[in-house]
Write a structure and sequence with these properties.
Strand order of the largest sheet: 1-2-3
Distance between the termini: 32 Å
Number of helices: 20
Keywords: GTP-binding, Nucleotide-binding
GO molecular function: GTP binding; GTPase activity; microtubule binding
Organism: Panicum virgatum
Largest sheet: 3 strands, parallel
GO cellular component, one term: membrane
Protein name: Dynamin-related protein 5A
Length: 521
């Protein structure tokens, strides 16, 4: 893999490159490196197998090696053989005591049941005369779950003479078939048998792990898709694509905002709370009794009469008293408009935080927020104008039927023959105050229903209908460079999205291949 574009056809060149790369990595010393050298071999004469050639376990450091070399090698070996999917080849020389084999010892530690450990016995041909390894190979001396396999490798002399592997394998077969002690074991001895056995075992392990692998791949694909969705779609290069992306993100935000108002998401209920609780309470707190105190009624009635007292009923006095009371409703009406405005702005902030695509582009997020707030400000101003008009309408024209239904003074015991100035007595003024209060209460009940309608029509309805209309109109006139500024995505996010997309493609490809294998089996 350190020369991905170069292919080798001569194994002598392969050996030399491995030696050279080792020297480059370790500096021509006897040290070790955890960096692996990857070599892929393509041939019709090899099995499907990945072999990891680890350094042999050692007990002491030789000259040129650090004192930690013993532990370093063991840690490196353990990092591989501890993996549950790893098949362990515990290689031990036949001319040494198996009880002292470091390979068997460490294999037992990481694989106590021996489910993935294969014993390999080397140097059988170098055993002392009169001794053999039959007891070990037949499992009587040291039993493993899988049978032992004996191999005869090239000697150092053969390596020096460049004896090729084909000749070495032929000599290995001849050794087992011609040696009386191992003749009966010959069919399951040798490197070729070991390779086939390992390949078959690996296939069986893979088959047993396919459901787990499928589950893991499916889970990983779902995680990658979720992460990609969170990061958002890649940005288009052309102006039309950029404009479409911006419009789609704005529509997503607008849709979430409407869901808050319509009750699909929380928040819209606060508007109703203003109409059902805050606004009526504010009206009830208006102190009409101050405007309708005896002194104030006498003052306004007298002032309204001017130089000539009223003859029958103080109409102008009534109007001034009613107007002075109704004008005070403007305060709660304006407060209701402003409170709903604040709620609508809060829902904009909430909808923006819930629109994941806006988080992808900070500049667009700011512009959309500003555009929404500006629209809400215009709607608030229009709503306030119309709402106050409702109050002013009540001041400008009184409901005549209310006064026509009032009893006349004579019916109430009044005496029209009395001096006109007698009508300014306390009883008379008190009755005027009560009449005005009844009328004002009637108007308050009317406004309590009509003002919320005005606010909803001018603010809530308009916010649902045209929150970003001005922004969309302005957006259509922007040039390519301005659109690009709105989609100012973090380069790190763009790189992560690309990497995730590549990983997702690989996992989907793996999923298809594994599914095909699973179905075929």
């Amino acid at each position: 893999m350190h020369q991905p574009r170069k292919r080798y056809t001569d194994f002598a060149a392969v050996r030399k490159e491995i030696a050279d790369e080792t020297d480059r990595e370790t500096g021509r010393s006897k040290q070790i490196s955890p960096v692996p050298i990857h070599l892929s071999i393509y041939s019709p004469n090899v099995v499907n197998l990945t072999l990891v050639d680890l350094p042999g376990l050692t007990k002491v450091a030789v000259e040129g090696q650090p004192d930690s070399i013993v532990q370093d090698i063991e840690n490196m070996v353990r990092s591989y053989i501890e993996k549950p999917n790893c098949i362990i080849l515990a290689v031990s020389p036949a001319n040494q005591d198996l009880a002292t084999s470091d390979a068997i010892k460490i294999s037992r530690e990481v694989d106590p049941k021996g489910e993935r450990t294969f014993g390999v016995l080397t140097k059988i041909d170098l055993m002392d005369k009169g001794t053999d390894a039959v007891d070990i190979l037949e499992g009587r001396s040291y039993r493993l779950q899988h049978p032992w396999v004996g191999v005869v490798n090239r000697s150092q002399q053969d390596i020096n003479k460049n004896v090729d592997m084909i000749a070495a394998r032929r000599r290995e077969r001849e050794y087992f078939s011609s040696t009386p002690e191992y003749k009966h074991l010959a069919p399951r001895m040798g490197s070729e048998y070991l390779a086939k056995m390992l390949s078959k075992h690996l296939e069986q392990v893979i088959k047993s792990r396919i459901p787990g692998i499928q589950s893991l791949i499916t889970k990983t694909i779902a995680e990658l898709e979720t992460e990609l969705n969170r990061l958002g779609k890649p940005i288009a290069n052309d102006a039309g694509g950029k404009l479409y992306t911006i419009m789609e993100i704005c529509r997503m935000f607008d849709s979430i905002y409407k869901e808050h108002l319509d009750g699909v998401r929380p928040g819209g209920e606060k508007v109703y709370h203003v109409f059902d609780n805050q606004f009526p309470v504010a009206i009830k707190r208006l102190q009409f009794d101050k405007q309708l105190s005896m002194e104030n009624v006498r003052k306004l009635i007298t002032e309204a009469d001017g130089y000539q007292p009223h003859l029958i009923a103080p109409e102008q006095g009534y109007r001034r008293l009613i107007e002075s009371c109704l004008v005070s409703i403007r305060g709660p009406a304006e407060a209701a408009v402003d409170t709903v405005h604040s709620i609508l702005k809060d829902l904009v902030r909430k909808a923006m935080s819930e629109t994941h695509e806006l988080k992808q582009f900070p500049t667009l997020r700011v512009e959309v927020g500003n555009a929404a707030f500006e629209s809400l400000d215009r709607m608030r101003d229009e709503s306030k104008k119309n709402t106050l008009k409702l109050v002013d309408m009540e001041c400008s024209y009184l409901t005549v039927d209310f006064f026509r239904k009032l009893p006349q003074d004579v019916e109430k015991g009044g005496n029209p023959s009395h001096s006109i100035f007698d009508r300014y007595n306390d009883t008379y003024l008190r009755r005027i105050g009560q009449t005005v209060l009844s009328y004002v209460n009637m108007v308050c009940a009317t406004l309590r229903n009509s003002i919320p309608k005005s606010i909803v029509y001018c603010q809530v309805r308009e916010a649902k209908r045209s929150l970003l209309d001005h922004f969309f109109t302005e957006l259509g006139a922007r040039e390519m460079k301005q659109l690009s500024k709105l989609l100012d995505e973090d380069p790190a996010v763009m790189g992560r999205r690309t990497n995730l997309a590549k990983r997702l493609e690989l996992y989907r490809s793996a999923q298809s291949e594994i599914d095909a294998v699973a179905w075929s089996k």
